[in-house]
Amino acid sequence: MRIAVIDDSAARAAVIEEGLREAGLTDLHIFLERHGLAAKLEACSPDVVLLNLENPSRDMLEETFALSRALARPIAMFVDQSDENAIAEAVDAGISAYVVDGLRKERIKPVLDLAVRRFQAFNRLQTELAEARSQLAERKIVDEAKLILMKKRGITEPEAYKLLRTHAMQSNRRIADIAQAIVTAENLLGGAL
Amino acid sequence: MSLDPFRIGFLPLVDAALPILAKELGLAEEQGIDLELVRDMSWATVRDRLIYGGTDAAHLVAPLAIASTLGLDRPATPMTVPFVLGLNGNAVTLAPPLAEAIGAQNGLLDSVTLGQRLAALIALRAREGAKLRFGVVHRYSSHNYMLQYWLRGSGVDVARDVEIVTIAPPFAAEALAMREIDGICVGEPWNSVAVERGVGVIINVTSHIWLRGVEKVLAMQTARAEAEGDIVHRLIRALHKAGEVFIDPARHSSNAAILARADYLDGSADLIERAIADRITLAAGQEPVHIPDFMFQHREAANFPWISQAAWLYAQMVRAGHVVKSDEGYAAAQRVFRPDIYRAAFVGTQVPLPGASAKLEGGISETTGVGTVQGRLLLGPDRFFDGRAFDPDQLDAYLAQD
């Protein structure tokens, strides 16, 4: 089974590719570039096309598929409505697929399931990365706020942290938010930091 | 009071303005709705989210709501259009050398003269074996049907002499610059972006092909629209209010600034304001031109879903070979537009409500008073460039003219 993976994210395409290869699907073709995509795809003549849902080339590709004179004419997986939950899950994960008309469903399903799982894993990774980034940024801001407090009030670092925490608890806000307010105020008031 | 959550999918276009303003100006909230807007980059995805439950409604090219109902490219999913989000607002942009070749580089010509010149160029290029290639934003888009209507009405053999391909709106300028296409019919601000980059000249606007022609609609799955009638009524009241704000000249700049935000069009407020204010710069370096009613979002019951407009679109889908004409298909297409829901939402308000649900499209040449069940209503001209009219009761006779 020949599978084309079209994605505007090289990282996500790599994650999908790895998963498919591990499952023994090795006839893989990856396309990241929009230019000349229709012609390249026609030359490749895949049985299955996997495409990220947010890819701006979807309308162009569907038009190409609709006009395709070749016998093997890919249609949206959504046309086979037998498993609506699976489709909703795919849309939710951010994936769309086109399958050559007539290809047996039993053969497609594992590929789609795998692609959905890989997309979900990639999404989780992205979320974790974003969280890690914002945690890092928060830690930096808390450190800055501690420094300001230590300088202004002549207290130690643990004391400064305790002050932040107590204030956060009393006002029912996050420590990072209190820290941000202190740093902003200091900047506005022309502090040295 | 708790708000009802409601999600609307949209593409980054100026005519997504009403849902965006309804949210940002608190008009949806006033109606008890917590509006969430979901931006996508292709109509295919806007449609899939709508069919598979990711969104409750969508800003959609009108023919795509009909295509979804008829089951083209997807399992048939009955759609309901209770409210039209706008009329016209698209333009035809040509690569500068071609605009010059037909003498269209210095201001808009009338669509008949311009169409004849473009038709001659298209025929010449086809004979030379170098067919002109036009982009449209979707196979089932008003852009495609308006462009084809103009070309066909100007004597072009559309199936034989010209190529029409699909290009996503944000890529219009790039595709022109890369010579992937010779021209494009797309919504704003994407023509203006091509003009600013010097890769395109606006040669025509869709309001000069069919004045007051239907463009984007609010589409919902019929099952949802029926189950949530009350929310639908409140939503379209909020959208109507947003239309009032949209056309207020004092608010053009601030509306453009809202649309320009990163979450919405993520573009230049100056370019966006051109379409809002009907002041379009046709070619790089030129002064803007005032094009009255370039886009039409509010007056004259612009948002009323005339069944005859859905019927016209179906007729164009038949002409383009996208559907095979059938009585059932024609009836199903017309059922997508729901003037009854529109009327129910505004009954007892100041909003004028037409008494009829269909009209002779292209039949008004001078502003005319029409019968209403509420309020007073004047309708301005709705002419097609070729002077043809469309009577929804005479589909066969209309198609036989081809």
TrEMBL record, chain A:
UniProt-recorded Gene Ontology molecular function terms: RNA binding
Domain of life: Bacteria
GO terms under biological process: phosphorelay signal transduction system
Gene3D superfamilies, per the entry: 3.40.50.2300, Winged helix-like DNA-binding domain superfamily/Winged helix DNA-binding domain (1.10.10.10)
Residue span, Response regulatory domain: 2-116
Pfam families, per the entry: ANTAR (PF03861)
Span of the signal peptide: none
Protein name as annotated: ANTAR domain-containing protein
From TrEMBL, chain B:
Keyword Cell inner membrane: yes
Entry-linked SUPFAM superfamilies: Periplasmic binding protein-like II
Annotated compartments: Endomembrane system
Stretch forming the signal peptide: none
GO annotations of cellular component type: endomembrane system
Keyword Transport recorded: yes
Entry keyword set: Cell inner membrane, Cell membrane, Membrane, Transport
PANTHER family named in the record: ALIPHATIC SULFONATES-BINDING PROTEIN-RELATED, BLL4572 PROTEIN
Protein name: ABC transporter substrate-binding protein
